[in-house]
Amino acid sequence: MRTLVFFFFYTTSAFLAYLFSGKFFEEGFFAFENPSDVSNSFYYFLLILAFTALIIFLIKLSKLFVKLIFYLLIFLTIYFVLTPFIGFFALIPSLVLTLILAVKKNPIFVNFVALFVSAGVIAIFGISLEPLPAIILLAILAIYDYVSVYKTGHMVKLAESLSEMELPLLFIVPGKERNSYMGVGDVVIPNVLFISSAYYSSLIQAIFTLAFSSAALILLLKKVDKPTPGLPYLNSAAILGFLISSLLPLSG
């Protein structure tokens, strides 16, 4: 059950991102000015490090303040995702969804918002990074995820704190004894290469990228039943799928 639900969230986020990305690309809705610049990967990684350090510091002072920060970020993300489609009117659903999220702690609704936010972020960063910068970013974050879980352990503690807040930063599958969680980052990061491949390489490479990372997700969920860094497996599989597909005569 857990495997099937997380697989659904993972692949649906990717397909929704593909649907969103066309409008974003058409409107020039890019996160970076030059998608081919590899320095974008390092810039984005430094932002992640700085933001993570800030949240770890703030969460010790006030969980309420951290909640407010994330609600603001969720509101802005929903707004920016909807703006290319409905313009200024995006303000209304963004505000409504964020308010409901703050009041109603329902796993189904949390998953719905997480799915929408994931798809939007995947689409924006997917069209903002060509495959080479995307691969570099995936490789860096795979290493970082491994270190932050197995060496420093700070990501496990952070995930536990955030799960208590019931924010849409984790996909939730309720269980009889305990809930299962999958980080939004585990869905977003490998699928950035999926969208990047679709726009800057070929649809075949995009399909291989998604297929390999999805297979890795299934294997990971089947074999692991404890907090595990997902990106080393998912990112490696996505990169492998991209590289293998690049050898095919129909790719490129």
TrEMBL record:
InterPro entries: Preselin/SPP (IPR006639), SPP (IPR010545). Its main location: membrane. One of its GO terms (molecular function) is aspartic endopeptidase activity, intramembrane cleaving. SMART domains: PSN (SM00730). It is a multi-pass membrane protein. The keyword Ubl conjugation does not apply. The chain crosses the membrane at residues 41-59, 71-102, 108-127, 134-153, 198-221, 233-251. One of its GO terms (cellular component) is endomembrane system. It is found in: Endomembrane system. Keywords: Membrane, Transmembrane, Transmembrane helix. This is Uncharacterized protein. The lineage of its organism: Archaea, Methanobacteriati, Methanobacteriota, Archaeoglobi, Archaeoglobales.
